[in-house]
């Protein structure tokens, strides 16, 4: 079945989907039946046509306005991009269509904090200007997002010779988000955490899967019965769910789509979902609620504060401690081959492990 050149296809899970490309972005539309998907596609295409018509009218209104008189030379705009113009160019050329809408929205939010610099020529922007904006922003997470945005924007600008130097090179990342400050459980803490989850599996089962499989929160929440292969004992990861963008099920990147083994007790835990509705998510829970459950569990049982993503850090750390090949770890966790991310960001050496290594080295010298 097609509608205006868009073909509706059968998904491997049994539901139906169609992909629509519009303004540099790919939108996936899903439906439980072919007719359901067709109706959703029709509504979306109608919205696109209305949007196009509105933009045409806006252009006509601009053309109908009287032309402004040219500014004197002293007030004429300098050559090159303003920060706002470069942001629009960078976002449209490098991000739209390549990353999820949630990421685009995050960049837009971070850029709003740079409002005072929007009309400044990027050649004139210094590290001091950017540092002042970052340091004046309330909230460590917001500071880190602004820092990350500036770093990406100016790196591309420098590589394209749009700026002569990169002012972000000497701006340190906010301390709260320094990469090596990420945490992971020690083996003893991990065992305690597993025992606590098993004692109340109905409530903490999703947390246990995050830890023992090393999957991202969105990947966990997108799991459906058809992703579970109990004959091969494998878990398929090909979608990521965000309650703020329920129709955008794309994974973080191409490498994130993978098939990985079910580790340890996970097969036995998930076996109860074998004959459930293939179109229904296994864990229909809010990501924020899941985070609060984790926070309370850790606080009530004297375990170090940890985020859901740091359960993934713990999984990767255990893999390295057991000397599992780097390429295998990258395949399991959905990192591109050769990525330095797996070791540089996610591997954590706890004090006890370091002391044992020192003892081994000292013993070998005598």
How many domains make up the 3D coordinates?
A: 3
Shape: globular
Overall structural class, as computed from helix and strand content, comes to: mainly alpha
> What percent of the residues sit in helical stretches (DSSP H or I)?
40-55%
Give the strand tally: 8
CATH class of the largest domain: Mainly Alpha
The rounded distance between the terminal residues' Cα atoms is 76 Å
CATH topology of the largest domain: the name is hpI Integrase, Chain A
Strand order of the largest sheet: 3-4-5
Could you walk me through the main structural features you see in this protein, from its secondary elements to its overall organization?
With 366 residues, the protein is mostly helical. The protein has three domains: 2-73; 83-174, Orthogonal Bundle (DNA polymerase, domain 1), CATH 1.10.150; 187-357, hpI Integrase, Chain A (Orthogonal Bundle). The chain is built from 14 helices and eight strands. Strands 3-4-5 form a three-stranded antiparallel sheet. The longest helix has 31 residues, at 34-64. It starts with a strand and ends with a helix. The model is unreliable at 65-78 (pLDDT under 50).
């Amino acid at each position: 079945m097609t509608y205006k050149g868009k073909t509706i296809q059968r998904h491997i899970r049994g539901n139906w989907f169609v992909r629509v490309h519009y303004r540099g972005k790919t939108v996936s539309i899903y439906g439980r039946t072919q007719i359901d998907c067709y109706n959703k596609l029709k509504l979306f295409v109608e919205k696109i046509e209305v949007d196009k018509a509105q933009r045409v009218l806006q252009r006509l209104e601009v053309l109908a306005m009287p032309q402004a008189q040219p500014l004197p030379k002293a007030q004429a705009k300098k050559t090159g991009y303003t920060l706002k113009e470069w942001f629009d160019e960078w976002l449209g050329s490098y991000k739209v269509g390549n990353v999820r809408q949630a990421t685009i929205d995050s960049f837009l939010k971070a850029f709003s904090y740079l409002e005072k610099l929007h009309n400044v020529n990027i050649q004139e922007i210094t590290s001091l200007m950017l540092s002042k904006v970052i340091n004046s922003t309330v909230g460590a997470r917001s500071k880190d997002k602004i820092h990350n945005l500036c770093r990406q924007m100016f790196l591309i600008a420098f590589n394209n010779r749009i700026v002569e130097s990169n002012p972000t090179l000497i701006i340190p990342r906010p301390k709260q988000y320094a990469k090596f400050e990420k945490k992971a459980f020690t083996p003893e803490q991990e065992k305690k955490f597993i025992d606590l989850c098993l004692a109340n599996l109905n409530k903490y089962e999703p947390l246990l899967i995050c830890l023992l499989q090393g999957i991202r929160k969105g990947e966990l929440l997108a799991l459906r019965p058809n992703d579970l292969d109990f004959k091969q004992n494998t878990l398929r990861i090909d979608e990521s769910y965000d309650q703020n963008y329920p129709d955008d099920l794309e994974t973080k990147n191409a490498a994130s789509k993978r098939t990985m083994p079910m580790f340890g007790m996970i097969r036995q835990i998930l076996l109860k979902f074998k004959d459930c509705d293939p179109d229904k998510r296994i864990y229909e829970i809010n990501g924020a609620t899941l985070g609060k459950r984790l926070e309370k569990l850790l606080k009530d049982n004297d375990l170090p504060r940890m985020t859901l993503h740091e359960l993934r850090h713990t999984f990767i750390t255990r893999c390295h401690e057991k000397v599992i090949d780097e390429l295998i770890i990258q395949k399991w966790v959905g990192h591109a081959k050769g990525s330095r991310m797996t070791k540089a960001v996610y591997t954590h050496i706890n004090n006890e492990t370091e002391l044992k290594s020192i003892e081994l080295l000292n013993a070998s010298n005598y």
